[in-house]
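User: Let's play a game. I give you a shape written as tokens, and you guess the letters that built it. Ready? Here's round one.
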């Protein structure tokens, strides 16, 4: 059963072919920013990217159109929806083409999947986009009636990793209570309760621990005063939350490999050619891990402490120091698993195969009234 996976980013399009769980090839098509600049908006890139993908497929001996079972794309900015596999349908394409819920390169995922599926006469899917929303009513509350907490997180990798952890435990995903922390440029920490993510921090711009590039939750009064002092520049304020916050704010760099080298040199009392102070780098990384650990432990309260496992994933889960710093603070909660990497391509392939084999329900995307509760 062959599945074609497509994952568009702002300056690249990732393409992979899977036969079962075996990856036959994985290609990253890089798009020059000057080349993309000729397109007025993201949607205008659709045919351009499609032709590049078709050229790659034509050049790969592993690809046989007659053996293809489905195409699955990365999900884009849609209305809040439960996790799972969704068929690309007219309602979904309409919302993505009009950027009804925002413009982002990931919006091209479903549209490219649909075009390619049409070429080869197979079905097109997406799975677990960032807008997956399964939060409980209690988790949505803040201290202001006008503001509710939102579910925006690394749903695709979170869900796939949680299922891996459940399999390692020998339990169905739907019978587990798992706390999963995705550590990357942004960090999401979620409680997976009976197959649903019932609470999670807004990994984009709202709350939770600070990360490599996100400021995370800030003292409200101090942030209000900061806003008032910079009210003439909303773009600057947004950047302070996302992109120039977190470790970037403290150390001026998002290069975690370099920062780890600096820390190692400091601990070994070696000279390292850099303007960054090793002791400060270590303290900032430890502070980030401290906040992640606090977030993990706070979510244990959601299920009265009955945790089957704590799971780390994402790019930073391959950093031994970061894993150790977090594990030492949270291992009392139960088994501790590490699945490094974002694993998006594999997760999409597994989701499509589950849908084709009947292990995953194929859901239908429909129009949504933002004033109604999440379906």
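Assistant: Ready! My guess for every position:
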């Amino acid at each position: 059963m062959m599945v074609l996976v497509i994952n568009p980013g702002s300056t690249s399009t990732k393409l992979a072919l899977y036969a079962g769980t075996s990856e036959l090839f994985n290609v990253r098509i890089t798009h020059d920013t000057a080349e993309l600049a000729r397109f007025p908006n993201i949607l205008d890139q659709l045919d351009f990217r499609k032709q590049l993908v078709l050229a790659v497929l034509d050049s790969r001996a592993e690809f046989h159109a007659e053996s293809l079972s489905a195409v699955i794309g990365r999900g884009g900015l849609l209305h809040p929806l439960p996790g799972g596999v969704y068929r690309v349908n007219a309602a979904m394409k309409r919302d993505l083409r009009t950027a009804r819920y925002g413009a982002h390169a990931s919006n091209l995922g479903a549209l490219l999947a649909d075009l390619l599926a049409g070429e080869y006469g197979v079905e097109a899917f997406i799975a677990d986009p960032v807008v997956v929303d399964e939060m409980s009513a209690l988790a949505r509350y803040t201290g202001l009636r006008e503001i509710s907490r939102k579910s925006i997180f690394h749903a695709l990798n979170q869900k796939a990793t949680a299922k891996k952890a459940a399999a390692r435990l020998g339990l169905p995903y739907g019978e587990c209570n798992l706390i999963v922390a995705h550590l990357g440029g942004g960090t999401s920490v979620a409680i997976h309760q009976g197959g649903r993510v019932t609470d999670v921090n807004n990994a984009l711009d709202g709350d939770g621990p600070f990360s490599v590039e996100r400021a995370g939750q800030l003292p409200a009064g101090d942030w209000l005063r900061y806003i008032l002092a910079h009210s003439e520049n909303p773009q600057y304020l947004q950047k302070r939350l996302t992109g120039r916050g977190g470790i970037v704010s403290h150390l001026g760099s998002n290069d975690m490999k370099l920062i780890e080298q600096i820390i190692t040199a400091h601990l070994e009392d070696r000279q390292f050619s850099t303007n960054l102070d090793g002791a400060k780098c270590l303290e900032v990384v430890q502070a980030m891990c401290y906040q992640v650990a606090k977030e993990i432990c706070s979510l244990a309260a959601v299920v009265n402490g009955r945790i089957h496992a704590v799971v780390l994933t994402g790019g930073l889960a391959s950093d031994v120091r970061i894993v150790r710093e977090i594990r030492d603070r949270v291992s009392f909660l139960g088994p501790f698993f590490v699945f490094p990497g974002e694993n998006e391509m594999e997760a999409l392939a597994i989701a499509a195969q589950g849908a084709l084999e009947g292990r995953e329900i194929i859901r239908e995307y429909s129009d949504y009234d933002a004033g109604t509760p999440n379906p």
